[in-house]
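Worked example

This section walks through a single chain of length 621. The input is the sequence exactly as stored; nothing has been trimmed or padded.
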Amino acid sequence: MSDIIQLLPDAVANQIAAGEVVQRPASAVKELVENAIDAGADKIQLILKDAGKALIQVIDNGSGMSVTDARMCFERHATSKIRKAEDIFSIRTMGFRGEAMASIAAIAQVELKTRRHDDELGTILLIEGSEVMKQEPCQCSAGTSISVKNLFYNTPARRNFLKSNPVETRHIIDEFQRVALAHPNIFFTMHHDGQEVFHLPAATLKQRIVHLLGTNYNQRLVPVEEDTSIIKLHGYVGKPEFARRTRGEQFFFVNNRFIKDAYLNHAVSAAFEELLPDDCYPLYVLFIDIDPSRIDVNVHPTKTEIKYQDDKAIYAIIRSAVKRALGKYNITPSLDFEIDNNIQHMITPMAVEDIVAPTIAFNPEFNPFEKNNKGTITPAPSYSGGSGSYQRNAIPSNWDTLYQISKREEVVQHEMEVDTETITIEDKPVHKTSERQLFQIHNKFILSQIKSGFMLIDQQAAHERVLYERYLVQLDNHSGVSQQSLFPQTVTLHGSDFELLKELLPDIRALGFDIREFGPNTVVVDGVPADLSNTSEHALLEHLLEGFKNNMAILKLDKRDNLARALARNAATKSGTVLSLEEMNVLIDQLFACQMPNLALNGKPVISTFTMNELLERFDK
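Given that input, the structure is written out below as tokens.
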């Protein structure tokens, strides 16, 4: 019997490894940008086409590579980061395994141009499916430019599993944001299909957060600082009132490497205990500096998980540091943590002797009323000009008849109203009171008497059900009614939310939104659904996208159903709202006109019925 175990060819082994390293275009972007950072670049450009499926290009001004290094970087397990096994436990670079470039080259067409700063000529290298097609000297800028074209071109089954362009773009933006946050001292740009998405100059951490997430985040951040013998912690957390219902704005970095750690996330959440509802999550961007010998970064293929020697101590440090930072904020909520030195002198407290009391100028001879010879009071004289001369205003002799015309019109109008009301009553009787007996309990439930007893209706769940079914019809028929804004509002979103909005734009317009793109990450809202016209456009869009992402992460709904749910929950009358008798009647009529009036959007009942027999049993009758 012949032997059956054989070594895999390098090309096949690289394709297998690529399935682990390069799951989607965002994975390739992460690896290439991190390589540029490890090369010492302070300026990195990311260029995308077709959400990275057609082109991913990363240009940096780092150290560049020699001719030999340019060829060796595409070999499996070829790395400049480690030389022996002990080096794994002192890693401070982003990558170290040496599998990324080999994996990318196995499933794409790669063009590499690189030159060291001291060399006159650089090297160009073309690789397709792990096969070197061309390598020769070339003229190029110092640093490295790598282009990955037609990702998964030789594995069509894998390419077919990629999502739509907006979805893949959002994943790329997520990876780009993580790297950009970890290195605020590096200048980053990102272009997608010829449009600049991000332009991030070198800045402080707070400025980088504001550049990435939006200018409205400038007043939302609270600084966190802690220096111990175990870790050094710094960064920012969001104020409790700006917490969201999704986890999209939570970033942990260990030695500038983004990680996902539910244990440390719980430490931050514990610091916000009793400050946030259970379904809200705070913003945080926190950096942990720790001795590499105290952690193990080689426990996950994507290096997003880490093991710690002193995990309980780290938990306690993070929790106490965040809690103390929030306590300082509560004492001085208007504190600005980064005051510009150029305007510091403008807010210096004034000395007591520098305070000048306000003065009032008046005419001591002025008398608003003056008696004439007959003893009656006449208006004060009106001055003409500044010469001091004046003349009295003449009083009309028929001033007492001034309001006769107005009174006559009121009488005529009153007679017309009486006649109109009489005609209306004679033509058709009007019932202004309803036969339905309704009561509101604690501004949360509606009690309605029925023949067999009474029923309790959850007013918020009922309104959500009514709006949900209404929005489904509008999405199917594109029949949403828009209320145009007198002054169109400009709304700026951060990158991933903007891409999500572009994906949902046709359906959002079907619901009654009138929205158009207006520059990078910015839209103009010309109109909103008519029943939501009294809501802030920015808050409405933010809550709509927030609800959509939350439903997508938890319920796995289709886009149409998800959007209707998100808008219904955002627009529904909340528990605690006082309703008039007419509003309760309308809500009940609309609820029982729904296809599923008894079921709330969360699957719980909307109506609970209590019979007379149940009441009699409670009173032992």
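What to look for: The chain has a mean pLDDT of 80.
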